């Protein structure tokens, strides 16, 4: 088990889709490439998207990679609900070399997304910090 005993700001809004706010979506998951962290970003029309970043295993304050585009955005059928235009998750896991993401849609439904882990890690590293 890992414990980080001090807080430090790691990330600030930088892209159009997360310009209003950015935050984490649950605990980091350890991979061979680094700590995988899913994030949520809020764009100018209050659309919530899910993205990812990769942190160094030994120094989690060091960002190794950050997606420049969202991993998940609300699809047309996911935009309507109590809180519109939102996809959000509070946790995720790795299973059979795939990232499994349970997520909520506009506070009205839930679903699952799957992402090939190696492809995601390669994209994170290619996009860089």
How would you summarize this macromolecular structure in one to three sentences?
The chain has 129 residues and is mainly β. The protein contains one helix and nine strands; from the N terminus they run βββββββββα.
Structural write-up:
The chain is mainly β. The protein has one helix and nine strands; from the N terminus they run βββββββββα. The strands form two sheets. Strands 1, 2, 3, 4 and 5 form a five-stranded antiparallel sheet that branches. Strands 6, 7, 8 and 9 form a four-stranded antiparallel sheet that branches. Helices cover 9% and strands 36% of the residues. It has one helix at 117-127; strands at residues 21-24, 29-30, 35-42, 48-55, 63-66, 87-88, 93-95, 98-105, 109-116. 29% of the residues are buried.
CATH architecture: 5 Propeller
- What oligomeric assembly is this protein in? single chain
Q: Please, what is the average pLDDT?
A: 88
Q: How many structural domains are formed by the residues?
A: 1
**Count of DSSP helices?**
1
Helix content: under 10%
The N- and C-terminal alpha carbons lie at a distance of: 26 Å
Any low-confidence stretches, pLDDT <50, length ≥5? Answer: none
Number of strands: 9
Order of helices and strands: EEEEEEEEEH
CATH top level assignment:
Mainly Beta
The rough form would be described as globular
Tell me the β content: 35-45%
Could you describe the largest sheet, including whether it forms a barrel?
5 strands, antiparallel
Radius of gyration: 14 Å
Q: Structural class, please?
A: mainly beta
CATH superfamily name? Glycosyl hydrolase domain, family 43
Which fold name is given in CATH as the topology? Tachylectin-2, Chain A
